[in-house]
Amino acid sequence: MADFAKPISLAITGASGSAYGLRLLECLLRANRQVYLMISKAGQVVIPMENEFSVPSQPKEAASFLAERYAAAEGQLQVFGREQWTAPVASGSNAPDAMIIAPCTTGTLSALAMGASNNLIERAGDVMLKEQRKLILMVRETPLSAVHLENMLKLARLGVVIMPASPGFYNRPEKVEDLVDFMVSRVLDHLGIDSDLAKRWGESQGLGV
Predict the structure, then answer these.
(1) What is the pLDDT of residue 198?
(2) What 3-state class would DSSP assign to 35?
(3) Which of 26, 80, 119, 202 is 20 to 30 A from 172 in CA distance terms?
(4) Residue pLDDT, tens place only, 119-159
């Protein structure tokens, strides 16, 4: 089995924008990071609605499918069930370096702000909060209500990175994948992982800084 860097948790919830999470998964695997993946029940429904494939509902089958699709090494990708409380992400004694929820529903946002742990994704996020590890939430909703904004502010004050799925257009995207890569590159920046997915400000169209 290959020697991977410390694991990163990735959760895909039921907000529109599953491509963000799937592309991030691909990039993390290419960067030789071990990934702990969780997909919510709603996320499982949304993925085939927005992509040309579906992910098996059983964790082992999902891991095999995604590992083959994204050329993961043996043992590099682990997929956990929604109530798999024995998963390492459920305890601060074995917490990963960071966790990203992409996309993140406002329901998941609310649960984290309230300290709820009704499923493994919420518990994993709560662990990151209590252990003061990096937690990135790619919130995808519009418009945002006062409740959503208050929950974001509460979590931001606790050190959570609130990263709404708001891609930039200064690099003149030509296809949907360019918009996805813009956001994924911003997540990778916050994880300290180099990428060339998107041109940076000042590198395209002769823009000055």
Answers:
(1) 76
(2) strand
(3) 26
(4) 999 999 999 999 999 999 999 999 999 999 999 999 999 99
Mean pLDDT of 38-43: 97
Please give the angle made by the CA atoms of 110, 116 and 122, to the nearest 5 degrees.
80
pTM over 0.85: yes
Q: How far apart are CA 134 and CA 117, in angstroms?
A: 18
What are the boundaries of each domain within the chain? 5-191
- In the structure encoding, which two tokens stand for residue 200, read together? 């940076």
Mean per-residue pLDDT, 49-76: 96
The residue type found at 29 is: L
| Integer Cα distance of 16 and 102 in angstroms | 10
Q: What is the pLDDT of residue 85?
A: 95
For 138-163, b where at least 16 C-beta lie within 10 A, e where not — what string?
bbbbeeeeeebeebbeebeeeebbbb
User: Whole-angstrom Cα distance, residue 105 to residue 147?
Assistant: 13
> Is 54 within 8 Å of 48 (Cβ atoms)?
yes
Q: What are phi and psi of 81, to 5 degrees?
A: -70, 165
CATH no. of 5-191: 3.40.50.1950
Task: Give me the numbers of helices (H) and strands (E) for the chain, helices first please.
Answer: 7, 6
